[in-house]
Queue: 3 jobs
Job 1
Amino acid sequence: MAAKTRVYLAGDFGAESGRVMAGLFDGRTLSLEEVHRFPNEPVRLPDGLHWDVLRLFHELKNGLRAAIRRYGAATVSVGVDTWGVDFGLLDRRGALLGNPWHYRDARTEGVMETAFRRVPREEIYRRTGIQFMPLNTLYQLYAMVRARDPHLEIASALLFMPDLFHYWLTGRRANEWTIATTSQCMDPNRRRWARALLQALQIPTRLFGEIIEPATALGPLRSDVAEDIGARHLNVVAAAGHDTACAVVGAPLSGQDEAYISSGTWSLMGVEWPHPVINDDSLACNFTNEGGAFGMTRLLKNIMGLWIVQECRRAWKAAGEDLDYATLTAMAAKATPFAALVDVGDPIFFHPGGMPERIARHCRATRQKPPADKATTVRAVLEGLALTYRRTLQDLERLTGTPIRRIHITGGGSQNDLLNQFTADATGRPVSAGPVEATAAGNILLQLIADGRLAGREEARALVRRSFPAKTFEPRDTASWDAAAARFNELHARRT
């Protein structure tokens, strides 16, 4: 490591695993090194599905300790990003009230429809601009209201997952903008909590605190944490709390006519837009307006991503056949094309467990023959994803009035060359894949801005392009995908 290299640390938590990544900046290029990786497995308790948040914080500190040993005084700061919508509740002393719920817990089933009887669906969208999903914080909280959960009575603050980790690192309570906007509890136009909506659903508004912008310096580590990891010089920065917001910062976008897909357990497809798009058309398409860095809006669609393949692999492993993702993808490449057209947006795929049988039930319900084997199953899911991307791209172009000329795929899913090629073929657009670690890169880019090493968005994106070359996939067999898309749309009514 060169003497002038500065090191920034990203605590990056996904739905399957967490890691601490180091970003090494030499003044011209950024390189990433993995310091510590650990599984992120939910825990099922008698009352439901929870995150093992104490273990996650322990592993975060293990990663920071390892980074300090490796890089020493060159380390500058750390920022944490996570998945969206989930949260912890604190009492008046600042103590955590129970393990945070997992967004796939079944307690929110049917809660959206109940909430609509108090506040109409159209009114909730007008006030928040957020896509309707039962996992949203708004419905998690309303489920607690309906259950008369005593935690709501004694809680004094709500912190989303990255906010909670930052609080434990520094002692400062705040809600970072990008993660707060995933909740469906915020007004994106006024950039404040949608308190009238919360009151209408009897959700205590006292829980919602100070909103801070991405790249906000939170201060040094608490003395006990600093002593524990052996670093009194490390600062904490609220880069962008939502992992997708970080991934968009880390995508090599060069204009509003380029779309992104942050590809992993979820696929989040959209554009970086200067303002929220909240109208009847965006409601009909169920698009979301989440906060982004640099004052931008992430106009996007949450799409069930590689979760379905992940769950299939888990089921097959439990049955005694442990196949890695590379093997499954190679098998899928040789399977029969378009044997079944799977709509990945079907709610049947949301909950864990029995995924191959869920796919078979979905196919029978849509009068299709279920996939005959593992290879065809995986291929059908990947083709269904690509066809969903095609439909989402068409919606994006209509909502923004801007033709999309290129798609950037980032994240772990960008390593799946078969899905990348399917996406290019299905959409008829060139696809640029990478960086794989766009989330960690975006987190660190925002820390560089907080440290005064980068001036803003343009310098950050230029650094991404210099540091992480992309792989390009050009459209090929578009005619067969056009025919498949016509059949796909006939089989599956547009989901909202």
Note: The chain has 19 helices and 21 strands.
Job 2
Amino acid sequence: ELAPDDGSQVPLNKISLDIETYNPRCMPDALKDACVMIGYASDEEKGVYSFSKKFSRDFVKTLETEKQMLESFAQLLRVKKVDVVCTYNGDVFDLPYLQERANALKADFRLGRDKSRIKSKKIGLRIVSRLGGRVHYDVFPVVSFLNFIGTIKVSNLTLDRVYHEVLGGKKLDVGKEGIWQIWDKGSTNELDHLADYCLTDAVACLELTNNFMHLQTELAKYVG
């Protein structure tokens, strides 16, 4: 029997993530190409995990190896007791890529609350990635659906356009095709800018989640 709704709402501990990948062939290959950064944002803090390079940004935590970076990020989710992991197209790209890199490096990378690995499978026409004991909230299909039915109107569905047209936010600009060159030969200033870029993507994802997720939670309360 359902308890009566007293108007309260259980607070959800949310964290967003965004990754940057090494991409000398334009499209990165998770079996060969490193994940060079993981940006994250919550309502309390934000930062970037990376490895082996020198940064001057205080929010960047630099590990010695990519394996250590992946394991440190997984540990962050456990320490923070995260309920909801937010991404922008993470079903298709970020989460499967991170799991493939972890598998290739034999990293202890278990993002599920039950210490399970990321599970990705095709449902209908779309890949869905799930985390045991946590909600994975991918903002991209939400935005795509709301744009299709006319609830919002955006010119295209890239994160920078959606962030700008829905919330008035502004992302930094980095040419995706040149990330591998910044990683290989970039100065500290260039690496800092890449870290800034990764962090603003994570912040944009969190702000969009906070803007849209209440629609689903209110609908769930309504239908029980």
Note: Helices lie at 66-80, 90-105, 139-149, 159-167, 179-185, 188-223.
Job 3
Amino acid sequence: MSKTDLYKEQITKAINAFSQKRFDEAEGICLKILSENNNSDANHILGCIRMSEGKYDESVTYINQSLSINPEDIGALISLGCALSSKKDYKESISVFKKVISLKNDISQVHFYLGESYRQIQKFEESLDSFKKCLSLTPDHIGCQLMIGIIYEELKKFDQAINFYKSCIETYPDYIEPHINLGMCLLLTGNYSEGWTEYEWRLKLPTQVYEMKMTKPKWTGQDISNKRLLVIAEQSLGETFQYIRFAKQLAMEGAKVIVMSQPEAIQILKEQKWITDVIDYEDTIEYDFYTYLISIPKILEWSPDMDTQKFPYVTVTNNSNKVIGSGKNIGVMMKADSSLSNYKQISIPEDQSKLIFEKTGYNIIDLSTFDNIVELSEVIKDLDLVISIESDVVHLAGSLNIPTWVLLPVVPKHTWDLSYKDTTPWYPSMRLFRQESRDDWTGVIKEVKEMFKSV
């Protein structure tokens, strides 16, 4: 057998091992080949192995070595684009995917990858064109249908977004994500009845909080007077404080409410006299019914025209007087967590946000410096005003009925119903400042700065 034939046989073995996730075996074969010959396929396979390990820089190095031998290898080019995208080098991945398309225009998944890279750098029109090309090649590409809906939302074309989410659902009725996205889009545009129903699909997500084994019936509206209702907090701390009002409503109507909560919120929740007990996710307790916290407004059929809320609905009893200032005390949260999916949308450049507070004599407190939410709540309760980007802080402040100004991106989270311009039915103490154009905070900063003069 010639060396060439031997390498082909070994590469086939490596590909088979890789496809069966026997990565060590595949790597051993490839490294042996490379010790004798700078083989493009062996480099490519090693690059894919490194990508699967999350070692993206090494992956790019191996795949580029493969392409130095065979520059127009479409498979290697696609892998390179994926590796660059994985390491968040989206502009380079776009360049690579466009090269693939110039060589072969009918691979639908490449158009999908290109669309996703464009989406990540917020070039939504280009992203939409790429996703539509993918869909023209593969009409039943469910992921592409979903992404087109997401892009239409980013472009504020909500009717089109809703139609694409519904198209996904018609194609694959049990696909969880389009139901969730449809629910959020409906809530954002003021359709609460359908929105709550679709948003219930989040309970099917394969996450630990939704996969807990429950021993008693789910509460769906049964009489719970004097019954022990286990309310399971879910998602972020902000949403816990946003939705806990509904658990309080049930307690006021006679339920004995037990809250299963994130550890960070337990101390504050234990201060709420209407809560019978507060436990961690690892704890067990006797109960008669259970419900997830965000499911309560669906069961109650809540919408903004229902006057059922009392404010504040959370109390902080600690009187440590953490805020000390001779004038007004203003709490500020302008730093976004980079791990958030909407980080790019809510982030305001520091040089712009600082313009709000020029030439003020107020006591400005940076709320991002408090890691402990208990301490944060003790600070917020003594503030005269909170000014914040979209964050957990605004929900905590709103639940305490503290005057709060929220700086929102052009397409905010589903909480901030677009039917309301500068107010929100969730919190009477809140004023919203909505971005008019993507990536342009100039108008918001100017409006907030002007209003700040009259504080």
Note: Residues 3-19 form the longest helix (17 residues).
